[in-house]
Amino acid sequence: MVLDYEAPQESHRGLIAAMLRQSYAELLRTEPACWLPEVAKWEQFDQAAFDHPDTVGACVFLSSVGGRVVGFGSFDPRGAPEFGRVGHNCIIPEYRGRGLGKLQVQEILRRMSARGIHTARVSTLSGAWHIPAQRMYVASGFRETGRRAWDSDPHQEVIEYERALDPTDAR
Asked: What is the CATH number for 95?
């Protein structure tokens, strides 16, 4: 499957937050104390991507298959050139399991490398729901660098990963 990428400004406000709510619907329902506070952060991120197209918005892209937006990827380059952080890597539920998240990660890495960033960092949670993300990051060349407690849920840890970038990633 091939993904096409476009700037978020090519769409409408609220789409990014809506995709995150759709993607995390199960966790919002089953673990509301942990996940409902995230909704306001998603809405702020959505607004920032549209309000600041030359900064935040330049580090976000929508992914489409056959003209339908199926997800988005983002990154934070503020640690450049030493490192950049993979941000949201969201694929809506009906398109999961097709390798699209990994394609988005490759696009994020390409964009980071094109900016001269040397190392990509990413984190995900340790819970069972996050196992596909853990596997995807390892399959994308990331290695685990540490774990720390997650403030929102003492039963889960934040797993930190890192991957060196090189000029071939920019292609």
From this structure: 3.40.630.30
**For residue 93, what pLDDT is reported?**
96
Q: Would you state the torsion angle of the CA atoms of residues 102, 126, 153, 161, taken in this order, to the nearest 10 degrees? A: -60
Stated pTM of the model: 0.94
Instruction: State the pLDDT at residue 151.
Output: 87
Cβ–Cβ < 8 Å for 88, 48: no
The answer, yes or no, to whether residue 23 has pLDDT greater than 80, is: yes
Number of separate domains in the chain:
1
The C-alpha angle with vertex 117 and arms to 135 and 6, in degrees rounded to 5, equals 70
Please state, rounded to an integer, the average pLDDT across all residues of the chain.
94
The sheet carrying 153-164 orders its strands as 4-6, 60-65, 68-76, 83-91, 119-125, 153-164, 143-150
Task: Evaluate whether 85 touches 145 at the Cβ level (below 8 Å).
Answer: no
HSE at residue 27, side-chain half, CA atoms within 13 A, is 19
Q: 127 is in which domain, residue-wise?
A: 4-170
> What pLDDT digit, counting tens, does each position of 84-110 carry?
999 999 999 999 999 999 999 999 999
